[in-house]
Amino acid sequence: MIDVLVNNWPLFAEGFVSTIELFALAAIGSLVLGTILATMRVSPVPVLRTAGAGYVNIVRNTPLTLVFFFFVFAYPRLGLVELSFFTLAVVSLTVYTAAFVCETVRAGINTVPLGQGEASRALGLTFPQTLISVVVPQAFRSVVPPLTSVMIALLKNTTIAAGFSVHEAGAITPALSERGEPILLGMLWIVIGFLILVLPLSAMQRTLEKRWRVAR
Amino acid sequence: MSSVLYDIPGPKAKARNATFGVVASLVVIAVLGFIGYRFAATGQFDPLKWSWLEYQTIQLDLLNALKATLSAFVVGAALALVFGAVFALARLSDHAWLRAPAAVVVEFFRAIPLVILIFTLYYALPKAGVTVGVFWSLVIGLTLYNGSVLAEVFRAGVEAMPKGQSEAAYALGLRKSQVMTTVLLPQAVRAMLPTIISQLVVLLKDTALGFLITYQELLFEARYLGGLGEFGRPIIPTAMVVAAVYISLCMLLSWLANYLERRNRRKVRYAGAAVAKPTVAETQDELKIDTLQAE
Amino acid sequence: MRVRTLAVGLLVGSLALTACGKQGGPSQLGSAPSQAPATGVTVDGSPTFDKIKARGRVVIGVKQDQPYLGQLNPTTHKYEGFDIEIAKLVAAKLGYGEDKIDYKPIPSQSREQAIQNGDVDFYVGTYTINDKRKQQVSFAGPYYMAGQDLLVRKDDTSITGPTSLKGKKVCSVTGSTPIQRVRDQQLTEPNNIVEFQGYQQCVDQLLSKQVDVVTTDDAILKGYAAQSPDQLKVVGKPFSQEPYGVGLAHDDKALRTKIDDVLQQAEQDGTWKQIYDATLGKSGSPAPTPPQIDRY
Question: Which UniProt keywords apply (chain B) (predicted)?
Fold first, then answer.
């Protein structure tokens, strides 16, 4: 059973390194873009709220494969900056995941009871103070566990890039098939690889969820 | 509009917000305008690139592709619901020999990326002498993954039922299976309906993965039509049309989920006005649904 | 809400369009002179031919997604291309005109199975003759000598053959023999190899300059070049030999001999060249000499 892994070590190693790179870059990108979108959606400016809501509603109802399709096949036709397949994959994952990050963050802000903000304003705290010392610490607690779920989903979603010419973990199965290696055993190793990546994340999620639920 | 972040704006804030509004509108218009300009500049609005829509055979092909997408969705959804129900029951069983393997199966399929699952079915099974074809590779993959997620949803729903429900049912002399099928499950399903439908939206979106194993669904058709030389390779127009179809299908389902959720909530509030602080609980539910959909 | 209304509107609009579609299409394909069906044809001792006769129609397995080779025209729903013309020619010489042919699209991986099951009477569709396949089916022909070649953008003069691929992005279908050959012979760096599920996707990427070369059998490449002759060209230095044959049942020697005769005659009397010029010839690549029929 270990043969499959040893004989194809470069394939597995490169695949997973590439998956982790994709994940890390898209995670950072989507957290930033998602937070910006969430800010738009809770802002007092109607135009920004509409724009944010429009983005979220369209992207959330689009299959990720279609987002990839658009960036990998359609985007190059627009004659803009030329990007590598890897970059296009990062962009697709970022654009898609940002919509979910946005909704999580926004819902998190909404979990902070109205009275908290009103009380802090009554105490004479300025807007940044209200935000930094009252709203964010409370919102953060309820946001992190579901945000971890979004990130786990992102990690699994990176495998779609395999269909768009990025050699990551999802591309291992077809490559094994091409080499005539036993695929089921190969898949077992891929699963183990993903478990190694996912389990710490979900363990963290569970701990945080428990600890912070008690604290509230 | 008052939120935890802002008070109702006064005259000064109103003026400031109005300025922001103007600037924001300009930025949004500029972004959309730039995209439109790039489309126009690269000839995406050229009539030739849209003329494929006029041909009857192509319209029929598109409808067939839509049918392929929907049939993968319908079969996958039906099987996933059955799979979910069976495994939820197994996980709720009193017998450890049933509970443990069910838990392993559900956790296993939830941990694997769906793409890997579909690829394995598509590439590995023919080597083992079983040819399932693209349709079933896709549908089985969708079933195993979404079925496992649904199993957890059902289980959570049943476990969230107030204890009094099952106690009362047992007190009436119902058997274990009767308690489950006539008392707990119907209520749980009703309570979890929005979440279940949200998961079906995920399933619908995931049918597009069939593209990766050349199942001839909408996206595949878009790629094919987008490569036709006689229409100037209209890949952007075809992508736009197919996107519109996908988005409207998913929105329809999402809207149904939201509608059911609102209706449920209204009834609950009406029935039990004493239930305190619904806002926080509601947003938490919303959080759960949202993260579910990211998958 | 507005977005939703728009989306629904678009959907309804596209459905409404269906009711009043245009017929026919802007097909650019020239067609080869059609052959009058022969009369009184007999092929003694051929079980397949007996079956065709009993049915009164001939069922031919083809490809449906190879432009100018075997393609289902999306606007007319007619099959077109070089392989299709060869199939028509064979059918005509067996006594069956265009109106008596049923085409059946069969993907590459199920060709042997379809022939063995008798789902098709014979198969014409970029079917490379090799010894492994000869154990399961038999081949008439070859009717075309294909070879791995390179498709590039018309203005690209830097790529002249397999040795000039270093530093170029090379695209082909995931797991296909051509991309394996590029990898094994290290014709380019491993990170310059790009794989997609279909040649069409590679050609798309070639046109939008995301890749520099598409590689596979020259016949397939010529088909794509014929689609856009002012944007693409085939380099024309094949570096492998892929003889395309007509696949048929393993034990049907009588029909095989008959089809060999048909192909040989077509190659000699110029019909073969007419077919080539009307289809793959549109790519700008001149007609090669037809291959020697291999009667085994």
Answer: Cell membrane, Membrane, Transmembrane, Transmembrane helix, Transport
Task: Tell me the per-residue pLDDT of B50-83, one tens digit each, with 9 for 90 and over.
Answer: 888 888 888 888 999 999 999 999 999 999 999 9
Convert the pLDDT of each residue in A35-60 to its tens digit: 999 988 888 888 999 999 999 999 99
Residue B249 to chain C, least CA–CA distance (Å): 9
Structure confidence at residue A52 (pLDDT): 93
Residue C29 covered by a domain: no
Structural domains counted in chain B: 1
Lookup result for tokens 């959309």: B32
What is the band of B267 on the pLDDT scale with cuts at 50, 70, 90?
Answer: low
- B246 part of a folded domain: yes
Residues above pLDDT 90, as percent of chain A:
35
Question: In chain C, whose CA is at the least distance from the CA of A51?
Answer: C3
Q: Do A163 and C180 touch (CB under 8 A)?
A: no
Q: Give the 3-state secondary structure of residue C95.
A: coil
Is C33 contained in some domain?
A: no
Q: Give me the domain span that covers residue C248.
A: 47-146+243-283
Residue appearing with tokens 């990062």: A90
Residue C26 domain flag? no
Residues 6+ apart with CB under 8 A from C154: C230, C231, C232, C233
ipTM: 0.85
Mutate to test the interface with B, among A138, A156, A197, A208 (most CBs of B within 10 A): A156
Between chains, do A146 and B291 touch, taking CB under 8 Å as contact? yes
Nearest to C9 by CA among B59, B256, A56, B241: B241
Same domain flag for C69 and C135: yes
Task: Please check whether residues C129 and C272 belong to one and the same domain.
Answer: yes
